[in-house]
Amino acid sequence: MSAEHAPIVPTYANCIRTDKPALVIPELVSKDDERGPAIHCTNIAVAGCVRYTTWFGGSYEGATDTQIWFSKNIDGKWTKPRAIAGNKEGEEIVYWNPVLFIPDRSQPKHLHVFFKKFTPIPVWVTFWMASDDGAPKPGPADNFKQGDKWIRSKLIELPNDRGKPYGGFPGEGVIQPGTWESKDQPGHCHMTMRSSVGCVIQADSTDYGRTWGPAFRTSLPNNNSGHCVTTLRDGRVVWAGNYQTQSWGPRTPLCLAISEDDGKTWKLWATLEDAPPPEDFKRVIALETGIVNDGRSEFSYPCLTPTEDDDETGVWVSWTWQRRGIMTAKVVEGK
């Protein structure tokens, strides 16, 4: 697990690429909405030929006017974003990081939206709301107690390299996992995690995620920012993230990589955004009350979901566009 024996993360210029780059069909959901000018942390879900997305937005990340926003795409057109949680009259509470979830694609209008409340970040509490008509509405949200509805696993074992019992990696540790299950090995699950050591960290399970093996370094880059993984219908695995290795480094370029061997090796599949960071950029300023960032050349926190069974094989992806907009794209095999 030490850096000395870890897989090498190739540079963006030298990484292996697929023979044919993917076909990327982008869509703009929202941009420069004065009701929530600073926006971030989008999710995307697709069912019944309808695309749904959520994000948080307010005057700045961590502000008490931050709300959870929602839009959906019907017949090729995104609806005007509307707030579904937050900024109630007399309420001085910060809202963060929504997660959109459709438990069963055969019931495409049955949506769950999870989100965080309160500040600073270490005191976050998860809340959730459900909708049966594909249109979440403002209203009471339930406090989500971990373990109420999901399997609660033990913590991932991290190496003891900080000189402390049960310590983690040097730096901030690992958070924000993405998961997939091996197509040909039911119950064999894999978890990729954001880290502060320049690469994605992974742990594996053979019992449907009830227990996990030790975490280990991979050849995928990570800049201590959000990433995502999902599987295609044929079992290939797709990763989305910034191709950077500096902790709190630039959140550009934003790329997709694909694996044909269940995540053992990866090839660059597509580059969604590739603007250079500002000349005066040094690092992302991360506080417990939120990120301090003007958003220039930030393309971050991608979310992936597979295309539907009656569609061509590929993924839908959404991401933060310079803290001013929400982008989505359909990504399929190149012609």
UniProtKB/TrEMBL annotation:
Instruction: Please give the CDD domains that the UniProt record associates with this protein.
Output: Sialidase_non-viral
Report the protein name in the record.
Sialidase domain-containing protein
Which species expresses this protein natively?
Apiotrichum porosum
Organism ancestry: Eukaryota, Fungi, Dikarya, Basidiomycota, Agaricomycotina
Q: Boundaries of each Sialidase domain copy?
A: 53-133, 170-309
